[in-house]
Structures are given as structure tokens and as C-alpha cells.
Amino acid sequence: MTAIAQTTAVVLPPTTDAELEQLLAAAQRAAAPLAARRPAERAELLDAVADALDAAADQLVPVAERETRLPEARLRGELKRTTFQLRLFGEVLRDGGYLDARIDHADADWPMGAPRPDLRRVLAPLGPVVVFAASNFPFAFSVAGGDTASALAAGSPVLLKAHSGHPGLSRLTAEVVVSALREAGAPDGTFALIAGTAAGAAALRDPRVKAGAFTGSIPGGRALFDIASSRPEPIPFFGELGSNNPAFVTEAAAAERCAEIAEGFVSSFTLGAGQFCTKPGTLFVPAGSGLVEALRDAALPPAAPLLNERIQSGYGEVLQGLQSNPRLEVLVQGAGPLADPPGATLLRTTAADMLAEPDALQTECFGPTAVVVTYDDESQLPELAETFEGQLTATIHGTDSCQVEALVEVLARKAGRVVWNQWPTGVSVTYAQQHGGPYPATTAVGSTSVGTAAMERFLRPIAYQGFPQHLLPEALREDNPLAVPRLINGRREGGR
Amino acid sequence: MTAIAQTTAVVLPPTTDAELEQLLAAAQRAAAPLAARRPAERAELLDAVADALDAAADQLVPVAERETRLPEARLRGELKRTTFQLRLFGEVLRDGGYLDARIDHADADWPMGAPRPDLRRVLAPLGPVVVFAASNFPFAFSVAGGDTASALAAGSPVLLKAHSGHPGLSRLTAEVVVSALREAGAPDGTFALIAGTAAGAAALRDPRVKAGAFTGSIPGGRALFDIASSRPEPIPFFGELGSNNPAFVTEAAAAERCAEIAEGFVSSFTLGAGQFCTKPGTLFVPAGSGLVEALRDAALPPAAPLLNERIQSGYGEVLQGLQSNPRLEVLVQGAGPLADPPGATLLRTTAADMLAEPDALQTECFGPTAVVVTYDDESQLPELAETFEGQLTATIHGTDSCQVEALVEVLARKAGRVVWNQWPTGVSVTYAQQHGGPYPATTAVGSTSVGTAAMERFLRPIAYQGFPQHLLPEALREDNPLAVPRLINGRREGGR
Predict the structure, then answer these.
(1) CB-CB contact of A134 with A144 (8 Å)
(2) Maximal C-alpha separation, chain B
(3) B485 domain-assigned
(4) ipTM summary value
(5) CA B345-B351-B356 angle, 5° bins
(6) A253 and A391 co-located in one domain
(7) B23 in the same domain as B95
(8) B295 CB contacts (<8 Å, ≥6 apart)?
(9) Has residue B43 got a pLDDT over 90?
């Protein structure tokens, strides 16, 4: 570790107070000119960043491999997802629907009892944002990941707090981003990398910063949320924290697709060595269905290294804690479950034990471990689902004839995304994606950190009353020069 | 005061712990069935409440007059606004656009690099909400006001913490609401009144409550925000707190419309005896333009009583504090500026003094007082505007030839609504209204508490992945039985 720590220190020294002050001042200076760009102009900036990252793939991926121990194919796929994401936000900018532009013409007879003035409302960027990168997706949730892409798309400058797990990749990616933005004509200060826990917290406390975004652990995310909320001027903090992602197999599904479900589950909970925030951590299966045996006999994948020493040791601690719980027994385990790399582990318990001690048995174990819970009667499932806190995802494997309405109701209340006959890992970047959920899945239940709606986090509404045309934002002018869709006097008009 | 206090205690005793527990349990039980109602069915509930309130006007208004000392015409107008607001949310429910329904069909060739699953996203209610009523709008921001209307429209049960300023009206209004909801078939527990500071705070701390909304003072709102944010499960808290609502008169406007502006300003800052959160508290006028003299000579309206003894005494304290500031002098004052009822007061200072001590000179004075600031050069206005914290509104009086782009940029960054050649008092309930702003105007910069977008506060997104049609919410089914507008594969379809 000493060698690694030294390398890290050389590669990415903590941002000093003086450096941070310069970067914050530059971000604040960039805010107004960046906000003033037309949406389609900001789309060009995102495209430029995406192109530059694609062009730098052969430089970026080897550094990522070295620092994260993730395989090349996975990293190349993740980089592709990352640049696709930047371009998708560009498409959303060109469409303009994200502006939620609304025009109410003056109406002397408005039935409220008083004349309605001319009112026009549009979403505008919040201002500088500090984004805390995650360790487990060194491209997609890091320097140029979803939080950065959606904040820049919204028109908010980004201070990116690098994750210490991949300092060299962070610096290299930031160089590509900064250079691409500069060449594309973005205002200086649109994007900057900062390093070190203290600098991240200081940035979040700074009055020039207007929002925070984070992907990581519950304790880390909660500490930052508390900083953001206790500022003299509290600011929104969009933390994506922890999730157990329970999955429920009905009796009919187990009878119909026993082997397929066992195989799919093993593949999902070990994907990326179990280091996904959407890893299914608990699987409820009918007792006596043969699914427990199928899982016990399933082929576990080869052990894969965890991201870094800190995650390796944390994984070992949590796994040992679970194994020492008398309510849990080992169902199946790969070779060297506590070794580096660790073989996968499936633990086993019963519905009665889960109901008796849900908090301990639902502890998130970041790595290739999951818990299989046998239940006796499908009617228990809603009660079992109720024992979970807020989740990013919840999954049901059923058949069309299963009576699962009550279970769906509970899971839709608990989770941001409910999955049917698929597995929650693999979060597609789309228009309808929702990656969020009630606390502790996130600190902002109304938001998503993946999908085109992620932009909404960094926008705020402004209404203009009685304004002359030439002083209005273009999206609100009568002749609609940007051709954005709008709500005019309560009716949708225009747009593609 | 003793007599009033005794009457209050009799009319609306503090909710006991046991009562609160019953009401919270009922609200939680109501949440799922209320959420399961079709939007158009919830619209019928809102219509029923509106009809019942209109029918009870002759009972409600006299109680409101007695408890708030506001004149009958104002109260009847406010009640009309309140029932209009309920019906407008009903219209939004019937339209269905508020659901932001999105469908992405499965796409094996999705260019992200992995197949896109079938994903469908819709907004759903947060669950039980506690609403803290305001004193200054006993109908529109109280028991059946905008927060209640938007939460019920969203499908979230409401616990309404009554304002102690109008206990009898609160109880009577709540009886009308509860009775109308019951007769219209709403689930028991959809709405309940609670009383007392302790009960309000306890409700906000309760894990069954999923959001809070508030209109009132900065200290009160911040204390509740801190409770909501420091819960084990933090919840969104939509507080609308304080605002100075600065207004800026350009040199050309002052030259062109001196008397009209003076008259309009006096009328606006004294409207409702200055007890509006949108009262323009500061007016910047060009020195030597004659506007100061016009204001000095303007006819002040007759003194009007403040809402209650607490507001009267608070107003006197703040006004005396302002008058004792050597940077402020009295420009004009009605008879008995500290009497009950108080005559209106206009104070006067200079731009240099405002720049020297902005916090003291911008103290919100809830009542018929405002500050006139003379400036020497229009180019000072953006710098003066920068001295303000977050605002609900900011106003410019100008002409089409004024160079105010820089001022508009600052004000749009500071305020939720920017007004041109009108006055900020009178917040129309419309589709494009924005009643919010950066802290301390509100505790949630991305939200509004007036206008149809106010519903968004009480909604959260849920995505359904790979779901069979019969288990999907109706808004997401392929055949669109509710005929709601939707985003399908990134393109807008349907709706009126």
C-alpha cells in the first residue's frame, strides 16, 4: 500500500486552499456565460467532450485497468456508455423539452378573481455544482460521468472531486475534458478537477456552490448531505448512497424457470465482482422449490479482484460479520471467499429470521455476496418487502398469472425502479430510466442520477412577468426562435 | 390578550400525542388507496372540496374577519382564489401531463453499447405530507390553501398544522374539507387538522411522513427544515420563508412615469397592510428624478389593522430598529406609525449606505413599511442587486430602450419571479407561475408553492422495467387508457 499511496500522492495531490479559491472563482465567473449559451451550443460542448474521450480511449483504458483492476472489455464498454451519455444529453438540449417552457398570456377574465398577467416560466441552471466521483465506475460515475454530463448539460459549471481510487485516470480524464471544452469555446472555469476530502467538503460549504452530487457509501453521503443542509444557505444535495436491491421469486416462477433464475441471479450478483450499487443483495425463494439446490449447485464465476485494498478489506469485514450471524449459514462459496481476489459467497436464511432481524441481514455487502431467503407462502412477500428501507431497485420474478399486485405496490413505494423477470444490474441510459429512490438509496427522493431526467437536478424555475420580448430568454419569446415545445395557456404546443 | 388566548385554547386545543398517533396511522392507511385513485377521480375530490368551501362562504368569512382583522371583500376574494386553485389542480389531473409519463420500448440496438430494456417511468405520490399553514392568507395559504391542494392533487394525504392566528377558521375550514372528502368517497385519513407547535414538529419527525411544506418566517421555517433534514430518513421540506422583493426604477422610467410609479409602489407595499411575502420592501430610484418627492407627497392609504397582536408587536420592533439606524431617515409616515392600526412608513437611504450595510437595511419588515434608496447612476444597479440574498420576486420599472440586460441577469439569478413594469404583490395562480427562489426565499430552490407546478413537490419518479401490461400503472400501459401525453422513445405523443 505504501507504494500505491505514494504514487497516488504524486499523481493527484490534494487541492490547496489557494487553488480551490481560484477554481471556485473561475467556476462562478463561468456560470453566467455558460448559462447564456443556447442549449444547442452547450450540446456542442458535450459532443466535443465525448469525441475527445473516445479518441483518448487507448490512453485512458490502460490507466483505468491498472488503477481499478477491472478488465479491459468492461472498461471499454463503460467508456462507450459514458460518451453515449454525453451525446444523449446533447440530444435533449437540442430538443429543448427539458426547459419546461410555459407561457400564460395576460387574461383579464382569468376566473381566479383577478386579471392574469403575462407570465412566462423556464428552467435555468442552478450555478456551480460540486460532484463527488464514485470508485466503482471509473468512467460512467466519475470525472466525465452522469453527474458531470447532466450538470454541464443544465448549464452549471462543475467542480469534480476525484475519487482517490483512480487518481491517475481522474487526472487524465480531466485533462481530456478541460482541453476539449477549451477547444470548443466553453468559458474558462466550466470544469475543474479537485482532490482530497477536505477540498471536497470545503467546496460544498462555499457560498458560490449551489448544489452537490455524490455516488458512494451511506456514511460518506450522509456526511456530505449534512454539510449541504446545514450551510447558512442550504443547497440541494443529490447523493446516491446504498441499496440492497431485493429480488422476489414467486412459486410459479420457481417451478417454471428454476435453473434459468438461479443462473441469472448468480450472474447478476457477481457482475463486476458484486461492486454495483444495483447488485441484488437478497433473493427470496419458495422453500422446497428446488431453487435453493439449484443455487447451491450453480457454477460460480471465477474470483475477480475488487477495486482496491480498501474495498477488499471492507468487503471481508462485512462478510465475516454476516457469516458470524447465527441466522445466516453458507449456502455455497467459491474458493477463498476472504482471499484477494475473493470467491463469491451465497448465504442462506429463512423468512422468519429475516422478519426477526431485518437490519442485520440486509446490511449492504459491497462485493460478490448475496443472501438467499426461503419463504413458505407467497402471501408473506409483501410483509417481507416492507422490512426494507428505500431502495434503488426491487425485482420480481413471476409469471403472468401470479397474484403480485400487493407486492408490486410495496416495492414501488420502496424503490425507484421495479424490475420484472430481469435483473437490476445494468442501468440503461435512456429517457425513462430512474436511478434513485427513497433514503438511504438517495438523499433526494424526487430525483434520478441516470437517464435524461437527471438534468432536472441542476435546474431551477424562473418566471418573467410582463416582460418585453427582447429581454426574455429565447425559449419564452413569442416567436419561439429555438422551436422548443411549450405549454401555452395550459396547452402543449410545438416541439418535434 | 387573555380573552383571545382563552378563546383560542377552547376553539383548537393542541393535538395530544395519542390523537396525533391516530391521525398519522390514518394518513398512512389512506396513502395507498388515495394514490391508487385515477387522477380524474382525485380531481373530483378537489372539486367537491371547492364546492363545499364556496357553499360555506357565509359561515367562513365572518370567522375569518373576526380572527384576522382583514376586510370582508379581501377575504371573499381570497376564498374565491382558493377554490379556483383547487379546481385548477383538478384540471391538471384530468390532463395527466403532470405524470411526466415516459415509455422506452426495448431496443436491442440501443447505441449505448448494451440492449435497452423496456422501461416506463411515471410520477407517483410521496406519501403523507405535513403542511404548516400561514397566518397572512387565512384561506389561500392555510387549511385548504395551495400546499394542501397540490399535495392532495399529487395523491399525498395531508396533515395540516393549523396556524394559531385563526384557530376558529382553521377548525371550521377543516370540518368543511373533511366532510366534503368523506361525502365524495375519499379514503379516511386523506386530510386531518392538527394544532400546536409540538404536534407539528412531532408529525414532521414521524417516519410515516414523507415531506413537509411551510409558509412563514425565516427562523420558523429554518427550524422545521433542520428537523426534516436531520431525521434518520431526511425528507424534502418545502419552506417559503422571507423575501424583501426589491424593485428598481430606471432613469428613463422615472422621467416618463414618475407619478404612476409612486402611486403604484405605495399601493403595492401597503396592500393587505404590507403583510404579503411579495411586498416590495426596497425601491431603488434615481436621485434627482423627482420620484422621491412624488413618494413623499403620495397619498398613503388609511391605516389598516395587522393580523394579530404578535404581528403588531413584531412589526413595531422591526420598524423601530430600522428607524434607529442612522443610515435610514423617515421620508413619509402616516399617523401613528407604531399605533394599532399602524400608519404606513416610507424610509429613505442612499445607494452608498445600502452597499455599506445591506443586511441591516434589507431586514424584512412584515407590515406597511418600505425603504426608498436613491442612486446616482443606473450602472450601479447590478451591484446593488447583488447585495440581496435569494428572493421570491424582483421588479424592474423601465422602458423599452433601457439597457437593463445586466440587471435582469442578476435578478433572475437571485429571484424566482422577475417582474417588469408591474408590482410583485398579487400572485396569480396559473400554469406558468413561479413562487419560490433561492434561500432564504425558500428552502427548496427547484420548487414553487403557487401555480400548477406546485404539485411536483409531492411526487417521485418510479420506473417499471420489463413489466407485463396488467401490472403497470394505467398511465404506462401501451394502449394509454387515461389518454395522457407521454414521451415515447424520446418523442412527445398524445395528450390534448
Answers:
(1) no
(2) 78
(3) no
(4) 0.97
(5) 100
(6) yes
(7) yes
(8) B262, B265, B266, B283, B285, B331, B332, B346, B372
(9) yes
For residue B357 the three cell numbers come to 450595510
Is A234 close to B430, i.e. CB distance below 8 A?
no
Express each pLDDT in A392-440 by its tens digit: 999 999 999 999 999 999 999 999 999 999 999 999 999 999 999 999 9
For residues B405 and B256, give the distance between their C-alpha atoms in angstroms, rounded to a whole number.
20
Q: Are A439 and B464 in contact (CB under 8 A)?
A: no
Distance CA A453, CA A461 (A): 15
Cis check for the bond before A440: say yes or no (omega within 30 of 0). yes
Chain A residue numbers touching B453 (CB-CB < 8 A): 100, 102, 121, 461
- For residues A80 and A220, the answer to whether their CB atoms sit within 8 Å is no
From A67, A277, A364, A365, active-site residue? A277
> pLDDT tens across A302-312, in order?
999 999 999 99
Q: CB neighbours of B177 closer than 8 A, spacing ≥ 6?
A: B49, B52, B53, B143, B144, B148, B191
Contacts of A264 in chain B (CB under 8 A): none
What are A363's three cell numbers?
A: 446490511
First to last CA, chain B: 55
Considering the domain architecture, whether residues B306 and B167 belong to the same structural domain is answered as no
pLDDT of residue B10: 59
Three-state DSSP state, A484: coil
| Mean per-residue pLDDT, B109-137 | 97
Tell me whether residue B105 is exposed, middle or buried, using C-beta atoms within 10 angstroms of its C-beta: 0 to 12, 13 to 18, 19 or more: middle
Check A431 against B102: CB less than 8 A apart: yes
Q: What is the pLDDT of residue A496?
A: 56
- Are B288 and B235 in the same domain? no
Are the Cβ atoms of A84 and B456 closer than 8 angstroms?
no
Pairing of strands B211-215, B282-286: unpaired
B440 preceded by a cis bond (ω within 30 of 0): yes
* Cα separation, A116 vs A110, whole angstroms: 6
Q: Which domain holds residue A360?
A: 247-420
Q: How far does chain A reach from its first CA to its final CA, in angstroms? A: 55
8 Å CB contact of B405 and A466 = no
Q: What is the pLDDT of residue B6?
A: 43
Q: What is the pLDDT of residues A42-96, one digit of tens each?
A: 999 999 999 999 999 999 999 999 999 999 999 999 999 999 999 999 999 999 9
* B472 located within any domain: no
Cβ partners under 8 Å of residue A2, min gap 6: none
Torsion A307-A308-A309-A315 (CA) sign: negative
Dihedral through CA A29, CA A99, CA A42, CA A444, nearest 10? 70
Residues A160-187: tens digit of each pLDDT: 999 999 999 999 999 999 999 999 999 9
| β-bridge mates for residue B247, sequence order | B283, B395
> Taking CA atoms, what residue in B is nearest to A444?
B236
User: CA of A439: which chain B residue's CA is closest?
Assistant: B233
User: Domain holding B121: CATH number?
Assistant: 3.40.605.10
Q: Do B102 and A229 touch (CB under 8 A)?
A: no
* C-alpha radius of gyration, chain A, whole number: 24
- Smallest Cβ–Cβ distance between B492 and the set A413, A416, A495 belongs to A495
Q: What are phi and psi of A367, to 5 degrees?
A: 150, -175
How many Å is the Cα radius of gyration of chain B?
24
Whether residue A402 lies in the annotated active site: no
User: Which one of B127, B389, B467 has the shortest CB-CB distance to A420?
Assistant: B467
Total domain count for chain B? 2
